[in-house]
Amino acid sequence: MFLWGTATAAYQIEGAAREDGRGVSIWDTFAHEPGRTRDGHTGDVACDHYHRWREDVALMSGLGLNAYRFSIAWPRVLAQGRGEVNARGLDFYDRLVDALLAAGIQPVPTLFHWDLPQALEDRGGWLNRDTAAVFAEYAATVAGRLADRVPLWITLNEPFVHMAYGYAMGLHAPGHLLLTDALPAAHHQLLGHGLAVQALRAAGARQVALTNNCTPVWPASQEEADLRAAEAYDVLHNRLFNDPLLLGKYPDMSAYIPTLDFLRDGDLATIATPIDALGINYYNPTRIAAPTADGLPFADAGVTGFPTTAFGWPVVPDGLRELLTGLKARYDTALPPILITENGCSQDDVPADDGTIEDTARVAFLEGHLAAMRQAMAEGVDVRGYFAWSLLDNFEWAEGYHQRFGLVHVDFATQRRTPKRSYHWFREFLKAQNRTQNTDT
Ligand code: IFM
């Protein structure tokens, strides 16, 4: 069955930051520090999904989805990141899973979508190798409770973004500015992934995947310096996270990373523990030029000549086809089936006087990207699912509530949910898919 879903993440929607024994995450800490997020927004309340999950499952049911990707808040399950299990935290996800299954929606949980327990950050976070093993213990704990009903698990969400924004550039929690010294945070996430795959399987999980955020990289020109910089960016954004997973080795980074002294015997074999699918999040291509003076081996030259989202990201649907066929060309038989685990756009959605929200640019975005995905499939890429980001407008990290990605509008003052035009469009699209599937069988 092709999975058609929407995706969300715990800190972006749940709220209830201090309820039922939930511990503090690095995002609670970071968002409460002055100047870290736009207008000082935090995820304390977010979409209040922790209390309104029934309404949100009903919205998904109304869409006709057969899958839902959400994330589990590690500090809700283990307030200190390890040790004593918070049963009330696990109960929440247990209820959610049951409600989804009752609605005919397959739950697809992600175990880590950036909300590391603060207690683990206090011991070095992902810079500390021990965090990898602790992550696997957490994975086993959650699977022990849910694996009887959850067939497909995702270990990490976008380890590149967590490393780059959280550890290299200081734009996300935990707010470190380490530039290329952030690399151990990538390695330990990947090691944690490999250990978690093994722990999940031991606990009865049937299928396991990891989600990478990938981007087609376009050199700003054919000049040697730009080509070299583009290759460096491709290595650090894409290959650093896909090669060890799929090929069991790191790409050559010796030109800008002098030593991989964090790498120990056996790590790469653990990271390459076979997975059942690769999650891909696609938003836009990246255009790269030779470095300026900021210590990185590349510079972002900006993609121009395309429409842009409210974030200013270029809308390039064919980039999804380019990315998928490029992955197939690069990894060939080592590439497992692909799930598009996120794809979407932010728009300044304002309700009209009659309350409707005509987000026609989002409809065009979805149409274009779905067609590009189909084209990649026609060109031989094995894609098994598509999850739109996002079900709800939510807390967009450093941008706070300023970027709306939802198919459903959320009024953050009242928590009123209003399906947008894109929600109605996606529902009709899914109905048509079902009709085709029924005719085919
Ligand atoms: O909101 C994020 C999500 O948490 C991870 N992928 C990209 C989305 C849009 O920025």
List the defining traits of the structure above.
TIM Barrel; alpha/beta; three-stranded mixed beta sheet; 14 helices; binds 5-hydroxymethyl-3,4-dihydroxypiperidine
Largest sheet: 8 strands, parallel, barrel
Bound molecules: 5-hydroxymethyl-3,4-dihydroxypiperidine
Which series of helices and strands comes N to C?
EHHHEHHEHHEHHEEHHEEEHEHEEEH
Individual helix count:
14
| Ends distance | 12 Å
Query: How big a fraction of the residues is strand?
Result: 5-15%
How are the SSEs placed, and which strands pair?
Blueprint: E1 3-7, H1 10-13, H2 26-31, H3 49-63, E2 67-71, H4 74-77, H5 87-102, E3 106-112, H6 118-121, H7 130-146, E4 152-157, H8 159-168, H9 183-202, E5 207-213, E6 217-219, H10 224-247, H11 267-271, E7 277-281, E8 286-289, E9 299-300, H12 318-331, E10 338-342, H13 360-378, E11 383-389, E12 408-411, E13 416-419, H14 421-440
Parallel strand pairs: 1-2, 1-11, 2-3, 3-4, 4-5, 5-7, 6-8, 7-10, 10-11
Antiparallel strand pairs: 8-9, 12-13
Helix pairs in contact: 3-5, 7-9, 8-9, 12-13, 13-14
What's this, in brief?
With 441 residues, this protein is an alpha/beta fold. It contains 14 helices and 13 strands. 40% of the residues lie in helices and 15% in strands.
Structure, described:
The structure is a single chain. It is built from 14 helices and 13 strands. The N and C termini lie close together (12 Å). Helices cover 40% and strands 15% of the residues. The mean pLDDT is 97. The protein has a single domain, classed as Alpha-Beta Barrel (TIM Barrel), CATH 3.20.20. The strands form three sheets. It has an eight-stranded parallel β-barrel with strand order 1-2-3-4-5-7-10-11, surrounded by five helices. Strand 12 and strand 13 form a beta hairpin. The chain is an alpha/beta fold and 441 residues long. The structure holds 5-hydroxymethyl-3,4-dihydroxypiperidine (IFM). The site of 5-hydroxymethyl-3,4-dihydroxypiperidine has 8 residues, from loops.
